């Protein structure tokens, strides 16, 4: 079924990710080249509710491909989880004559999009942009590759000081529910131990691993730990956020706690921990993220023209695919067992 929207609204929402600007640029240029107007909605769903909208020309997205973050801002929006908030958002669409939406973000963004699309019968297409890489149906999300490179560089730098001072270093990375970032950065950075949310860790095994590194005269140990990692039978450390529609464990605390626990069970080596925090989300996107974002942005416009609705653009085996929001959000994207095993073997 073919369909041609009059005006596409585009927004970025949730945690920013390098490459969001490249996706915005691609959506804008692809739409305009098909004679469709584009209106940028500032601050995600918050701007949709408040009517913060501006028509974009190709000039508005000029020069933004190398820039991290998002020029149209991002926000978490508890109001959008209420029927009243979504009604106000819809009124903005009517007022602005926007008859299709493209939302750039992660699972929270698509959860809101799915409900909104159903309530008001408006076509919505999602573009996956999150450093977490935790969306089912796509091999990669925009921002993931850049984030990995940033973390890898930090691990490399920490190794220099770890070897010089013969210390144990704990590097806490993002990933409250998914260990993609931790696992892949641990492999790329050649870390010695990797602790992820999916596999609760045994602190005794961590201790043994550390000791082995010193008996084998390696003389230092680099450990990557995801913010959502927890010991067997233990709780995730950190403060739970109760923001409506966005529940997560605040960053920080996991590496600090592990350092204290290791001391408590008798590890005598000098231990330091580093929290990479939001550094992992910044920076100019890698070539791979720029290309992914550009392809997905153009594909999102194609999807609308083909009459698709309520789907996320994905990339499978280097081909564009469209995944219903329900699947992308609900189904877990499991880590590949071989990769988990490879990390363990290579670190031994
Ligand atoms: O971008 C996704 C994510 O990085 C998670 O891994 C992390 O828990 C969360 O965002 C932190 O987001 P913020 O502190 O910006 O709310």
Secondary structure topology:
Blueprint: E1 7-12, H1 20-33, E2 37-41, H2 44-50, E3 53-56, H3 83-96, E4 100-105, H4 107-120, E5 124-128, H5 144-165, E6 168-173, H6 180-188, E7 193-195, H7 203-215, E8 221-226, H8 254-264, E9 271-275, H9 287-305, E10 311-316, E11 319-324, H10 325-330, H11 337-346
Parallel strand pairs: 1-2, 1-4, 4-5, 5-10, 6-8, 6-9, 7-8
Antiparallel strand pairs: 2-3, 10-11
The site of 6-O-phosphono-beta-D-fructofuranose has 11 residues, from loops.
Class per helix and strand makeup = alpha/beta
Share of helix, binned: 25-40%
Order of helices and strands: EHEHEHEHEHEHEHEHEHEEHH
Largest sheet: 7 strands, mixed
Q: How many β strands by DSSP? A: 11
**For the residues shown, what is the average pLDDT?**
94
Quick one: overall form?
elongated
For the structure shown, list the relevant keywords:
348 residues; seven-stranded mixed sheet; alpha/beta; 11 helices
Provide a concise account of the structure shown:
With 348 residues, this protein is an alpha/beta fold.
Task: Outline the structure in words.
By secondary structure, the protein is α/β, with parallel strands linked by helices. The protein has eleven helices and eleven strands. The chain has a seven-stranded mixed β-sheet with strand order 3-2-1-4-5-10-11, sandwiched between helices. A four-stranded parallel β-sheet has the order 7-8-6-9, sandwiched between helices. Strand 1 (7-12), helix 1 (20-33) and strand 2 form a beta-alpha-beta unit. Helix 2 packs across helix 3 (83-96) and helix 6 runs parallel beside helix 11 (337-346). It is elongated, with a radius of gyration of 22 Å. The termini are far apart. Residues 239-249 have low confidence and may be disordered. The structure holds 6-O-phosphono-beta-D-fructofuranose (F6P). 6-O-phosphono-beta-D-fructofuranose (F6P) is lined by residues 15, 130-132, 174-176, 227, 248, 251, 281.
């Amino acid at each position: 079924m073919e369909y041609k929207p009059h005006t596409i609204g585009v927004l970025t929402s949730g945690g920013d990710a390098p490459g969001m600007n490249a996706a915005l640029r691609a959506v804008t240029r692809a739409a305009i080249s098909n004679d469709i107007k584009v209106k940028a909605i500032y601050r995600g769903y918050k701007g949709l509710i408040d009517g913060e909208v501006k028509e974009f020309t190709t000039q508005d997205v000029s020069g933004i491909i190398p820039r991290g973050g998002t020029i149209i801002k991002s926000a978490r929006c508890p109001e959008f989880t209420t029927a009243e908030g979504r009604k106000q958002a819809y009124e903005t669409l009517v007022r602005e004559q926007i008859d299709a939406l493209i939302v750039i973000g992660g699972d929270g963004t698509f959860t809101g999009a799915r409900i909104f699309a159903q309530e008001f019968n408006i076509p919505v297409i999602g573009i996956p942009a999150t450093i977490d890489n935790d969306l089912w149906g796509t091999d990669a999300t925009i921002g993931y590759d850049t984030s990995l490179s940033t973390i890898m560089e930090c691990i490399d730098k920490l190794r220099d000081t770890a070897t010089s001072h013969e210390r144990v270093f704990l590097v806490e990375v993002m990933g409250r529910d998914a260990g993609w970032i931790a696992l892949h950065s641990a492999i790329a950075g050649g870390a010695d131990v990797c602790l992820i949310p999916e596999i609760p860790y045994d602190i005794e095994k961590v201790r043994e691993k550390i000791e082995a590194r010193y008996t084998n005269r390696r003389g230092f140990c680099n450990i990557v730990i995801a913010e959502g990692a927890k010991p067997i039978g233990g709780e995730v450390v950190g403060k739970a956020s109760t923001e409506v529609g966005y529940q997560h464990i605040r960053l920080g605390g996991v590496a600090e706690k592990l350092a204290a626990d290791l001391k408590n069970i008798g590890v005598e080596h000098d231990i330091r921990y580093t929290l990479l925090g939001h550094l992992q989300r910044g920076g100019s996107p890698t070539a791979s993220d720029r290309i992914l974002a550009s392809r997905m942005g153009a594909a999102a416009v194609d999807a609308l023209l083909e009459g698709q609705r309520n789907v996320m653009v994905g990339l499978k085996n280097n081909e564009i695919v469209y995944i219903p929001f329900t699947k992308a959000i609900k189904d877990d994207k499991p880590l590949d067992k071989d990769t988990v095993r490879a990390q363990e073997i290579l670190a031994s």
